[in-house]
Amino acid sequence: MRKPNILLVEDDELDTISVERSLKKLEIQYVLHTAYNGLEALKMLRDTENPLHPDVILLDINMPRMNGIEFLKILRNDESLKDLKVFIMTTSSESNDRINAEELGISGYIIKPLNYTDNTKRPDSMEAFVQFHLRKILNENT
After folding, report:
1. 37 by DSSP, 3-state: which?
2. Which of 18, 48, 51, 134 is the most buried (most CB within 10 A)?
3. Dihedrals φ, ψ of 90, to 5°?
4. Is the model's pTM score more than 0.85?
């Protein structure tokens, strides 16, 4: 059975750890690839010898060198990458960020912080995303 691939594009180490913890709760075998920014992610996706074909991309908006919106614009204009499922993860509550991301065909929008010390479950939290959306997507692709 093929293990699904997840590409996490995130510059914050603590958020990366939080995502990894949430993903472990899936109880599904997967391969997690990480990139520090959009440029690194594009390099992985376009590698001529071993290109990455993720089932899902988890993308931060605010990153150095190439932010999430810039990355998404390039992705959606690339014939071989334009149909990838991308979920935005951000601290931004700016409606412009959400509108720009939605116009670029994202699959969903997750608001950070990715985990909470209280047990409040918001529908846009990482925990809710992992349990309800990501589990379904990864099971469909195995």
Report:
1. coil
2. 134
3. -155, 155
4. no
Confidence category of residue 121, pLDDT binned at 50, 70, 90: very low
Closest Cα to residue 62, out of 88, 33, 43? 88
Residue 109: DSSP 8-state: E
pLDDT tens profile 81-111: 999 999 988 776 677 878 888 888 998 888 7
In the numeric block, the tokens 């990715």 are attached to: 114
Can you list the positions of beta strands (E) in 17-142?
A: 31-35, 56-60, 86-90, 108-111
d(CA 135, CA 131): 6
pLDDT in tens, 29-45: 889 999 999 999 999 99
Within 8 A by CB and 6+ apart from 5, the residues are 30, 31, 33, 52, 53, 54, 55, 56
With a pLDDT cut of 90, the percent of the chain lying above it is: 43
Answer whether 125's CB lies under 8 Å from 111's CB. yes
Residue 31 β-bridge partners: 5
